[in-house]
């Protein structure tokens, strides 16, 4: 073996492939494929790495590999956040206490579908007396096109039925603070023992107990990511003409395209969605919600266009 080959072999020996399993701000934790061992590696605060990223580690240098998929949201100030990488499913956790902000579930379903991920709706805290009415409302709106599970992290109701669906998938829990994401993970895998936090007594809101996203292997196969709660699930990079396709409640329209490819389903002729609405096959409530999200996306597109124009003018 000549010197170059020997050096290359040495180099490759200290290169290891792995998965980013926790993001700690200025450091990340990587789990190596070959040994299963974990190592903390320092990174810049805004490195852009997220839990689920595939990485190559060369001594203390971290090289991120191309992502197969990612889930992104936009916060109230218009900043985009990648929440997880190389995912298969997004488990949207909701509860009757604290209730998610209006539109949260719809936006989460749309963001998941737009990223080619399977949305799963989890209605946690079914042991609470006021859960029944909430479950009924969510079932009416989402059950069918979106897989929906009613469960309780406290009593364990419905948890096995849900976890039977996770094998072989990498899923992420998303939801507002206090809905019970970490409690559910603890129920699924008691050994993980994540910190959970009681709701504020008077306002019945969560306390942002989880501050770091972490990826966990499940006994029955599959992986689950616990993430910190957040309330703004702004949609990022979804063209207005794609919105209806991802919108929960419009699935009936998928088989019959509208007359115009760029139809926004307001008053265009030959529109499948308004026709289904007229025949009562799409509910007024779903249509109204669609229009409000459409309006929001249009305003965002206009703002981005305006900013681009200004940038070009300044150059
Ligand atoms: N009654 C009832 N309470 C629950 C259930 N699941 C979680 N809780 C309670 O809800 C509170 C919040 O739970 P967490 O698991 O910390 O919620 P989280 O969604 O992880 O919150 P963040 O980490 O802040 O995003 C805790 O007091 C839990 O005991 C449930 O199924 N039923
Ligand atoms: Mg938590």
From TrEMBL:
<keyword id="KW-0547">Nucleotide-binding</keyword>
<feature type="binding site">
    <location>
        <position position="263"/>
    </location>
    <ligand>
        <name>Zn(2+)</name>
    </ligand>
</feature>
<keyword id="KW-0378">Hydrolase</keyword>
<keyword id="KW-0342">GTP-binding</keyword>
<dbReference type="InterPro" id="IPR004881">
    <property type="entry name" value="Ribosome_biogen_GTPase_RsgA"/>
</dbReference>
<keyword id="KW-0479">Metal-binding</keyword>
<feature type="domain" description="CP-type G">
    <location>
        <begin position="68"/>
        <end position="233"/>
    </location>
</feature>
<comment type="subunit">
    <text>Monomer. Associates with 30S ribosomal subunit, binds 16S rRNA.</text>
</comment>
<keyword id="KW-0694">RNA-binding</keyword>
<dbReference type="GO" id="GO:0003924">
    <property type="term" value="F:GTPase activity"/>
</dbReference>
<feature type="binding site">
    <location>
        <position position="271"/>
    </location>
    <ligand>
        <name>Zn(2+)</name>
    </ligand>
</feature>
<feature type="binding site">
    <location>
        <begin position="124"/>
        <end position="127"/>
    </location>
    <ligand>
        <name>GTP</name>
    </ligand>
</feature>
<dbReference type="GO" id="GO:0046872">
    <property type="term" value="F:metal ion binding"/>
</dbReference>
<dbReference type="InterPro" id="IPR010914">
    <property type="entry name" value="RsgA_GTPase_dom"/>
</dbReference>
<comment type="function">
    <text>One of several proteins that assist in the late maturation steps of the functional core of the 30S ribosomal subunit. Helps release RbfA from mature subunits. May play a role in the assembly of ribosomal proteins into the subunit. Circularly permuted GTPase that catalyzes slow GTP hydrolysis, GTPase activity is stimulated by the 30S ribosomal subunit.</text>
</comment>
<dbReference type="GO" id="GO:0042274">
    <property type="term" value="P:ribosomal small subunit biogenesis"/>
</dbReference>
<feature type="binding site">
    <location>
        <position position="265"/>
    </location>
    <ligand>
        <name>Zn(2+)</name>
    </ligand>
</feature>
<dbReference type="GO" id="GO:0005525">
    <property type="term" value="F:GTP binding"/>
</dbReference>
<keyword id="KW-0862">Zinc</keyword>
<dbReference type="InterPro" id="IPR030378">
    <property type="entry name" value="G_CP_dom"/>
</dbReference>
<dbReference type="GO" id="GO:0019843">
    <property type="term" value="F:rRNA binding"/>
</dbReference>
<dbReference type="Pfam" id="PF03193">
    <property type="entry name" value="RsgA_GTPase"/>
</dbReference>
<keyword id="KW-0690">Ribosome biogenesis</keyword>
<protein>
    <recommendedName>
        <fullName>Small ribosomal subunit biogenesis GTPase RsgA</fullName>
        <ecNumber>3.6.1.-</ecNumber>
    </recommendedName>
</protein>
<keyword id="KW-0699">rRNA-binding</keyword>
<dbReference type="GO" id="GO:0005737">
    <property type="term" value="C:cytoplasm"/>
</dbReference>
<feature type="binding site">
    <location>
        <position position="258"/>
    </location>
    <ligand>
        <name>Zn(2+)</name>
    </ligand>
</feature>
<feature type="domain" description="EngC GTPase">
    <location>
        <begin position="85"/>
        <end position="231"/>
    </location>
</feature>
<comment type="similarity">
    <text>Belongs to the TRAFAC class YlqF/YawG GTPase family. RsgA subfamily.</text>
</comment>
<feature type="binding site">
    <location>
        <begin position="175"/>
        <end position="183"/>
    </location>
    <ligand>
        <name>GTP</name>
    </ligand>
</feature>
<keyword id="KW-0963">Cytoplasm</keyword>
């Amino acid at each position: 073996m000549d010197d170059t080959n020997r050096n290359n072999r040495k180099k490759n020996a200290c290169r290891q492939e792995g998965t980013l399993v926790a993001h700690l701000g200025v450091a990340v934790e990587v789990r190596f494929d070959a040994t299963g061992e974990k190592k903390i590696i320092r990174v810049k605060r805004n490195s852009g790495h997220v839990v689920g990223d595939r990485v190559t580690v060369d001594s203390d240098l971290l090289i991120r590999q191309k992502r197969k998929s990612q889930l992104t949201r936009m916060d109230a100030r218009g900043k985009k956040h990648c929440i997880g990488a190389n995912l298969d499913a997004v488990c949207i956790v909701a509860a009757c206490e604290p209730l998610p902000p209006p539109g949260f579930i719809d936006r989460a379903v749309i963001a998941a579908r737009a990223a080619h991920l399977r949305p799963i709706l989890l209605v946690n805290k079914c042991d609470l007396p006021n859960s029944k009415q909430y479950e009924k409302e969510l079932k009416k709106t989402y059950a069918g096109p979106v897989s929906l599970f009613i469960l309780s992290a406290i009593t364990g109701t419905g948890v096995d039925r849900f976890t039977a669906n996770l094998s072989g998938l990498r899923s992420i829990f998303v939801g507002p603070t206090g809905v019970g994401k970490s409690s559910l993970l603890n129920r699924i895998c008691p050994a993980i023992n994540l910190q959970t936090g009681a709701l504020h007594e008077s306002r019945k809101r969560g306390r942002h107990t989880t501050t770091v996203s972490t990826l966990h292997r499940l006994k029955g196969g599959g992986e689950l990511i616990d993430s910190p709660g957040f309330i703004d699930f702004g949609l990022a990079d979804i063209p207005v003409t794609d919105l209806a396709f991802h919108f929960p409640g419009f699935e009936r329209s998928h088989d019959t395209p509208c007359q115009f490819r760029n139809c926004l389903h307001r008053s265009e002729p030959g529109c499948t969605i308004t026709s289904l609405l007229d025949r009562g096959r799409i509910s007024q409530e779903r249509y109204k919600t669609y229009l409000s999200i459409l309006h929001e996306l249009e305003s965002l597109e206009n703002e981005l266009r305006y900013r681009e124009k200004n940038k070009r003018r300044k150059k």
